[in-house]
């Protein structure tokens, strides 16, 4: 009987100890109103704890029976914070994910992709000798041309040019899909921003290949836009070739124009000299005058020989006087011819050439004009050769756009990628919810 009471008391103590463990730490060491009488009775009934010897085992805690087993913990109950946590998960993760799934699979329109691939090529034609053998070299263009084309396809200029040729705003405006279609703002800036989403350019810098992917809500519209992009790009490359050719020939053309003006002025000065003097070639005219002087000198020499012969045979020969008169006449004529060739124009008592100017002055002026004319002709020939060389070099290198993939016509919509977008949205929502929950519990534990 006493033993059963003792066991019952031990069970009550164990239950009380379990209830005390459930209390907060600052209440576990204080008796409450409910357990105060029981604690008093237990203190009165229990004997004083015995002291274990020094060499014995560990001391048992007061009021603990040997082999006592603590009762199991109370089952967890749903707290208010648990309900709020589940509600936040539904509102933050499940609700938006379901709305996104509904929009993607029920509202969003299918998008078809058309692809076109091309590369900028340069055809280098050889010289005239190489052309006889039909030698033509094909090579890729410099990276600068491809870089310019890559930026041009994504530029507002491309969008504006295509908007003038195609109804882009009507193609990308679809009712019932406010997110993936073009909005009501149809200005060029809004259209250009939307263009960045629907047109993607892939550029391989190693090979110089460009691939363009065009999205549209109709497969034929996507193919039409891709073909228009190729045409605009081809026009851009042709314009670059024209600009490069013009830059290469601009300096040569300017030099040729200056050489032509210089040659024209030199020829006009020579023509004015001939009209003023009446002499086509002063050098030829002087050579004629020198021929007259040479002939007179020959006659003078013959007359002198004849006079000397007569004087040796008969000093009183009346023919000597005639020969002397002829000699004086020849010497006078020679003096006149020489004075005409060597004296300045306008000198009194001298014989001059045409228009009152001596032949020496005419020859000096004519030689200066001839020097200017020859220099102008040489400069003109050099400039002409340089211009022809620049033109040949410009024509030797011809850029063009080579397409290795024609604009494709899609049969199956590829976009939007609904499952990928849904997974990304759901994952983002779940991660943000987890982070927010962890922040909440961290702040709660600090209080």
From TrEMBL:
Biased composition regions of type Low complexity, renumbered to the chain: 36-73
Keywords: Coiled coil, Membrane, Transmembrane, Transmembrane helix
A GO term for molecular function: protein tyrosine kinase activity
Membrane-traversing stretches: 83-106, 419-443
Biased composition (Polar residues): 340-359
Full protein name: Capsular polysaccharide transport system permease protein
Annotated signal sequence range: none
Stretches the record annotates as Disordered: 1-73, 338-359
InterPro entries per the UniProt record, alphabetical: Bact_polysacc_biosynth/exp (IPR050445)
Biased composition (Basic and acidic residues): 1-10
Chain segments annotated as coiled-coil in the UniProt record: 249-313
Any Gene Ontology CC annotation: plasma membrane
């Amino acid at each position: 009987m006493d033993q059963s009471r003792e066991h019952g008391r031990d069970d009550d103590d164990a239950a009380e100890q379990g209830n005390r463990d459930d209390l907060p730490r600052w209440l576990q060491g204080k008796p409450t109103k409910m357990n105060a009488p029981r604690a008093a009775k237990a203190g009165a009934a229990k004997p004083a704890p015995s002291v274990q010897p020094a060499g014995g085992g560990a001391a048992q805690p007061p009021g603990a029976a040997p082999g006592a087993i603590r009762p199991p913990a109370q089952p967890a109950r749903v707290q208010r914070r648990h309900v709020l946590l589940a509600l936040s998960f539904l509102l933050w993760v499940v609700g938006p994910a379901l709305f996104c799934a509904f929009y993607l699979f029920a509202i969003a329109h299918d998008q078809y992709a058309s692809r076109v691939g091309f590369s900028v090529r340069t055809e280098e034609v050889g010289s005239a000798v190489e052309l006889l053998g039909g030698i033509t070299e094909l090579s890729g263009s410099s990276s600068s041309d491809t870089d310019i084309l890559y930026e041009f396809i994504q530029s507002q200029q491309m969008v504006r040019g295509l908007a003038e040729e195609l109804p882009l705003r009507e193609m990308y405006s679809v009712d019932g899909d406010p997110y993936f279609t073009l909005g009501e703002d149809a200005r060029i800036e809004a259209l250009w921003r939307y263009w960045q989403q629907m047109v993607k350019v892939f550029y391989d810098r190693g090979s110089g290949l460009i691939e363009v992917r065009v999205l549209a809500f109709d497969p034929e519209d996507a193919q039409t836009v891709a073909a228009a992009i190729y045409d605009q790009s081809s026009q851009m490359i042709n314009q670059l070739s024209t600009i490069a050719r013009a830059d290469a020939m601009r300096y040569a053309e300017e030099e040729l124009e200056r050489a032509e003006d210089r040659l024209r002025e030199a020829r006009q000065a020579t023509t004015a000299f001939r009209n003023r003097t009446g002499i086509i070639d002063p050098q030829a005219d002087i050579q004629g005058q020198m021929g007259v002087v040479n002939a007179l000198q020959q006659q003078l020499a013959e007359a002198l020989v004849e006079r000397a012969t007569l004087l040796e045979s008969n000093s009183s020969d009346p023919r000597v006087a005639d020969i002397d008169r002829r000699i004086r006449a020849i010497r006078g004529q020679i003096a006149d011819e020489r004075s005409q060739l060597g004296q300045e124009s306008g000198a009194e008592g001298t014989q001059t050439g045409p228009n009152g100017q001596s032949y020496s002055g005419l020859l000096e002026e004519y030689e200066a004009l001839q020097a200017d004319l020859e220099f102008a002709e040489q400069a003109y020939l050099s400039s002409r050769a340089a211009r022809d060389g620049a033109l040949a070099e410009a024509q030797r290198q011809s850029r063009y756009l080579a397409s290795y993939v024609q604009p494709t016509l899609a049969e199956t919509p590829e976009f939007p990628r609904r499952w990928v977008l849904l997974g990304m949205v759901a994952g983002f929502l779940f991660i943000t919810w987890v982070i927010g929950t962890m922040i909440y519990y961290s702040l709660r534990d600090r209080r």
